[in-house]
Amino acid sequence: MQGSSVNPSQGELNYSATATPAADHHSEHPDLRLFGFIVFLVSESMLFLGLFVAYFAFRVVTPLWPPAGTPELELILPGINTIILLSSSFVIHRADTAIKEKGDVKAARGWFLVTMAMGATFLVGQVYEYQHLGFGLTTNLFASTFLCADGFPWSSCICGAPVDVRCVMAISPTRSLFPNQSFWH
Amino acid sequence: MTQAPALHSEVEVTPWREYFSFSTDHKVIGIQYLVTSFVFYLIGGVLAELVRTELATPQSDFVPRETYNELFTMHATIMIFLWIIPSLTGGFGNFLVPLMIGARDMAFPKLNAIAFWLIPPTGLLLLLSFFVGPASAGWTSYPPLSLITNKAGEAIWIAGVILLGTSSIMAGLNFLVTILKMRIPSMSLNQMPLFCWAMMATSALQLIATPVLTGAMVLLGFDLLVGTAFFNPTGGGDPIVYQHMFWFYSHPAVYIMILPAFGLISEILPVHARKPIFGYQAIAYSSIAISFLGLIVWAHHMFTSGTPDWLRMFFMIATMVIAVPTGIKVFSWVATVWGGKLNLCSAMLFGMAFVSMFVIGGLSGVMVASVPFDIHVHDTYFVVAHLHYVLFGGSVFGIYAGLYHWFPKMTGRMLNEFWGKVHFVLTFVGFNLCFLPMHVLGLQGMNRRIAEYDPKFATLNMVCTIGSYILAVSTLPFLINAIWSWLGGPQASANPWRGLTLEWTTPSPPPVENFEVEPVLLIGPYDYGRPEALVMTSAANPSLMGKPNSKAETVQPLPSREAEDKEGG
Ligand SMILES: [Cu+2]
User: Fold this and answer.
1) What is this structure's pTM?
2) Which residues of chain B are within 8 Å of residue A36 when distances are taken between CB atoms?
3) Which residues fall inside 5 Å of ion ligand 1, going by CB?
4) Record: contact A140-B235, CB cut-off 8 A
């Protein structure tokens, strides 16, 4: 489960549909939501794979990359930001172990909230970064691809947030955090 | 149980209001899909008739040229996204898959309902775009053309395609999980009806290919509305990347539109030929092979887009390789029908017409797969002929065959056979009259997507137009027959065709929970000629005794037979 985030237009719908008890009137069925969610993640990764390959295609066909006149990218702040985002994966993993191995709902909820706080920090960092970029969405092809490649994942985080909040409320020892965890990655 | 339990004297008829509600019953949703998509088929058909009327004469004299572009763009969009895909996957898939695998419903009933209810409003939205000038850059919507024509209509078109794609992904997810996880315990993958295999292959394609189209649409939308330059050469973008992303979906889309029809035909032929299907595993695995190969051939649509030679070579060979699994299916169908005791009812007629028409479309497909030939006929009427033999001679004939075959199960009423045959003859004649001459037109160099043409093409175009009018008339006997029979046709028994798949073991129409008792497999889906088949289709079947709506006879397994079944695989 990696390389997954969600497409703003379809992610939330699918996500909530698979994460809420969809098979109400079929309580005797084994729980298929986890399997369904994995299938969804595979499908959704294709969206990002497609965009990613498109990005490389643009790179390959453009003679000079980034095109002349594109301001230098600042690397330190985005670097810190990325580290925050990546380490949040470990934190949500702690939340998962807390609940799976110790059944500790409180700790799990805590770790989960820390993850979300880290996500929020990341978003704030991104907004700051965009304001100081020196180029906009329509400046040139490089700017367009850069901002979109960069923008899809975090905008999907925003979409995922309300679902996550609901999950924090619903945490119980019986419910696996796996869907949230794999989504976050 | 060889004895039929008490007959259901009262059939539970779904109240009509249910069909307009957010029902989570897969049978209701299946019928919702079928009826909705048929309405869009009629609308798309009207657009096609307008196109053909314009093309009846060489001059552009019926509608303005811009309108002509809008008509063929919307015709293709509606037929693909609102007719064939929803009716085959959403319609037949929903109604049949759970019944065929003995499940009570789909894995995610609510998701199922959401997927359906995305379709009517989106279709309406697309139709409303006629008020602002709809998309007119062809259903392929290639930039930069799509960025400079009818901006509002194009934006609606992009939104519509994203929404319909989302619905399709949801449906695919649901089918895959349902087929893999919800079969009755006594049914292994290799005992599954072939339609379920086909739906499995289709769902995989929906899940893998559709998101890439969504990605392309998002970027195209940015280009159109925000002014980015992904695909716009003026800003340094690359329109070829769009073509790759678009066809990465849209070639598999052809298989999304034909694989379920393959599945339907694999069900219908053995029933009406009274013979086991020939090469069950060959048909099953060739669906999977087609699904996989279908993902690596997309650039055969781009042989004239400056694609490098080595890439053209690869895509040419890969495309031709697809003819192998497809040919395996065709041979298996012919071998199934060969020497059978054919019941030439409407379903069977459409089924056999499907095979023959699809062979024509398949062969012209191998022709256009070849780079030198394709460069010659690219964007000519040869391609139009090819795609209509696949999508009409294939998919639509398959849908009609399925409708005639399962109408009794869906509605509990029999369709009128006489009018069914009238419908078949008109459709078959009209179809060939309309599309066969297009092969010649294409070879002679008539371009597609043009409103006026060289007068030397006039005669054949007139023939095509007359054929299309016959095709339009042909839907009337079907429509009247369907409505009439649904309201007051003769009652259908549980198993009017003496089929062996599980949907025929439950009353017509099936009760809300599908099966009163979880069914147990007694016999493979195509084991005609085995003693159990006789038990299931005649001895204990009151349909042959003139008593409609019998209950399932296969609930209790005969222990010795079950052991035999396991050995037989
Ligand atoms: Cu293709």
Assistant:
1) 0.82
2) 107-108, 173-174, 177
3) B 251
4) yes
Place of tokens 């739906």: B199
Question: What are the Cα distances from residue B536, in Å, to B4, B101, B543, B554, B568?
Answer: 11, 17, 11, 7, 18
Region B332-349: mean pLDDT is 92
Is B46 within 8 Å of B455 (Cβ atoms)?
A: no
Residue to test with chain B: of A51, A53, A65, most B Cβ within 10 A: A51
Could A25 and B24 be called an inter-chain contact, meaning their C-beta atoms sit closer than 8 Å? yes
For residue A6 the two structure tokens come to: 């969600």
What's the pLDDT at B251? 94
B258-285 exposure pattern, b = at least 16 Cβ within 10 A, e = fewer = bbbbbbbbbbbbbbbbbbbbbbbebbbe
Tell me how far CA of residue A106 lies from CA of A102, A161, B285, B322, B531, in angstroms. 11, 20, 50, 56, 63
Burial class (CB in 10 A: 0-12, 13-18, 19+), B197: buried
Q: Which residues contact A131 (CB under 8 A, 6 or more apart)?
A: none
Q: Hey, what CATH class is A31-184 in?
A: mainly alpha
Q: Report how far residue B389's alpha carbon sits from residue B84's, in angstroms, rounded to the nearest whole number.
A: 14
| Contacts A137 to B, Cβ<8 Å | 222, 226-228
For residue B147 the two structure tokens come to: 């960025």
Task: Tell me how far apart the alpha carbons of residues B242 and B244 are, in angstroms, rounded to a whole number.
Answer: 5
Q: What radius of gyration do chain B's Cα atoms show?
A: 24
The helix/strand/coil state of B16 is helix
Rounded Cα distance, B237 and B420, in Å: 53
Q: Which candidate from A7, A10, A22 shows the least CB-CB separation from B108?
A: A22
Distance A74 CA to ligand 1 centre (A): 44
Closest residue to A138, CB basis, from B176, B219, B228: B228
Do residue A26 and residue B111 have CB atoms under 8 angstroms apart?
Answer: no
Q: Which of the residue ranges B243-257, B423-437, B485-499 would you say has the lowest mean pLDDT? A: B485-499
CA B418 → CA B19, B425, B492, distances in Å? 29, 11, 17
Tell me the chain B residues in contact with residue A150 when contact means C-beta distances shorter than 8 Å: none
Residue predicted with more confidence, B152 or A144: B152
Report the C-alpha gap between B512 and B510 in whole angstroms. 7
Going from the N-terminus, what domains does chain B have, and what CATH number goes with each?
Answer: 16-270+282-567 (1.20.210.10)
Mean pLDDT confidence for B258-266: 96
The pair of structure tokens assigned to B364 is 């012209």
Count of C-beta atoms within a 10 Å radius of residue B16: 7
**Contact across the interface for B210 and A7, Cβ inside 8 Å:** no
Tell me how close the Cα of B132 comes to any Cα of chain A, in angstroms.
Answer: 24
Interface mutation target, options B161, B177, B207, chain A, most CBs of A under 10 Å: B177
CA–centroid distance for B127 within its chain: 22
For residue B438, report the distance from its CA to the centre of ligand 1, in Å: 19
In tens, the pLDDT along B461-478 reads: 999 999 999 999 999 999
Model ipTM value: 0.77
